[in-house]
Design a protein that fits this description.
Number of strands: 7
Structural class: alpha+beta
Bound molecules: iron/sulfur cluster, FE2/S2 (inorganic) cluster
Order of helices and strands: EEHEEHEEEHHHHHHHHHHHHHHHH
Strand content: 5-15%
Largest sheet: 5 strands, mixed
Strand order of the largest sheet: 2-1-5-3-4
Helix content: 40-55%
Shape: globular
């Protein structure tokens, strides 16, 4: 057993007062959860402390909250680990480094109903319903169940693991700036149906999510939802998959994000080094190396980018020839051969590496080991866990 101080942001609407902080002392084994600490405080000190929970096993998704500023599940966060993080934060802030209070707040981006209980309906569930979270098959239903190949479902298994806890929504930076953003949980749910072979309205779904100004292109790629998700759903990855599918469907990306992604691939393939000027050209007006093949939009966007191009020129951070598409030097021929072999390998293994299904990053396929190909051993923070 160890003693901990939990500092809870409280809000009791019936009191007519605004939110306030209250500290409780709890004694628990460090391996127990922050939620156990809250329940102990509720039991011993103040029965009015409001917290939502049910399974206490990271399954029901009820106990989303912020712990030391990070969104997650109260029942999945060990209090000993929360203490270490609280101490680290206090030390960075120049405060005490031992037994710093563990700060617990309600989830962000949602109205607070009472203490740690947030209104999931007004944000989370409304947005989930926004993406039509059910199958839309065409034709008459089969006499019995739909039969699909298990392999065709692999792509969506990761998004199916969502327990609707809202932790990703709570941590989403785009949603802070734009509360109308459909958001990580709902877009991950959308991919669950876009990727389902039984659904017959894939194109309509993609157009809908791409053309909505608060849709898939509103995500700023900040990774917060990946860090927050307790089930390894990696919502940002599902949003990137939606963007990729939209690009394949020929849907124009208002931010030219898909074209920008493809431009990176093409420029490195051609030169081995990043030619920033060529990157701008290729992103908005794809053409052949060094030759602008202007489209109306390409010209407009390139002209709009001129201040961005001119700023580093003025500050002499880049030379004039680096600002002209195609003039930036590339890698020598022998080194380009290495780049080409990487591209060849990627093309021959044209398969998305889905850690959720295929195990931990760092595990090498036998054929890769034979070819001496290395892969990073850094874990991606995703669990090989099927959730529910
Ligand atoms: S990656 Fe996108 S969806 Fe995820 S938290 Fe950041 S802005 Fe939100
Ligand atoms: S995607 Fe992850 S964090 Fe978001 S609601 Fe689902 S389980 Fe929770
Ligand atoms: S109580 Fe069910 S997920 Fe925490």
């Amino acid at each position: 057993m160890a003693d901990y101080t939990i500092k809870v942001r409280r809000f009791q609407p019936e009191s007519g007062e605004g939110p306030y902080w209250e500290e409780f002392n709890v004694d628990l084994d460090p391996s127990l959860a922050v939620l156990d600490g809250l329940l102990q405080a509720k039991d011993r000190d103040d029965g009015s402390l409001a917290v939502r929970c049910s399974c206490r096993a990271a399954i029901c998704g009820s106990c989303g909250m912020k712990i030391n500023g990070q969104s997650g599940l109260g029942c999945k966060t060990q209090i000993g680990e929360a203490q270490e993080l609280a101490n680290k934060k206090a030390s960075v802030a120049g405060e005490r480094t031992e037994n710093a209070p563990i700060v617990i707040e309600p989830m962000g981006n949602m109205p607070v109903i009472k203490d740690l209980i947030t209104d999931m309906e007004s944000t989370h569930w409304t947005k989930i319903r926004r993406v039509t979270p059910w199958l839309l098959p065409h034709g008459d239903p089969p006499e019995r169940e739909y039969v699909v190949e298990p392999e065709s479902m692999i792509d969506i298994t990761q998004s199916m693991a969502c327990i609707q806890c809202g932790a990703c929504v709570s941590s989403c930076l785009s949603m802070e700036a734009d509360p109308d953003f459909i958001g990580p949980a709902a877009l991950a749910k959308a991919y669950r149906f876009v990727g389902d072979p039984r659904d017959a309205e894939t194109a309509e779904r993609l157009h809908d999510l791409a053309e909505d100004p608060h849709g898939i292109y509103d995500c700023t790629h900040c990774f917060s939802c990946i860090d927050a998700c307790p089930k390894g759903v990696a919502p940002m990855d599902q949003i990137m998959r939606l963007r990729r599918r939209a690009g394949e469907e020929g849907i124009e990306d208002p931010n030219a994000g898909h074209a920008h992604e493809m431009a990176f691939v093409k420029v490195i393939e051609k030169k081995g080094l990043l030619d920033e000027a060529l990157l701008v050209q290729e992103s908005y007006a794809p053409g052949v190396k060094g030759k602008l093949k202007p489209s109306k939009r390409g010209l407009t966007e390139t002209i709009k980018s001129l201040p961005t191009i001119l700023r580093p020129l003025r500050k002499r951070k880049v030379k004039l020839r680096q600002a002209i598409p195609g003039l930036h030097h590339g890698l020598p021929k022998d080194e380009m051969n290495d780049v080409k072999s990487i591209y060849k390998h990627a093309e021959e293994h044209n398969e998305e590496f889905n850690l959720y299904i295929k195990g931990e990053e760092g595990e090498l396929a036998e054929e890769d080991v034979e070819k001496g190909i290395e892969r990073s051993t850094e874990p991606a923070g995703q669990e090989a866990d099927n959730g529910q």
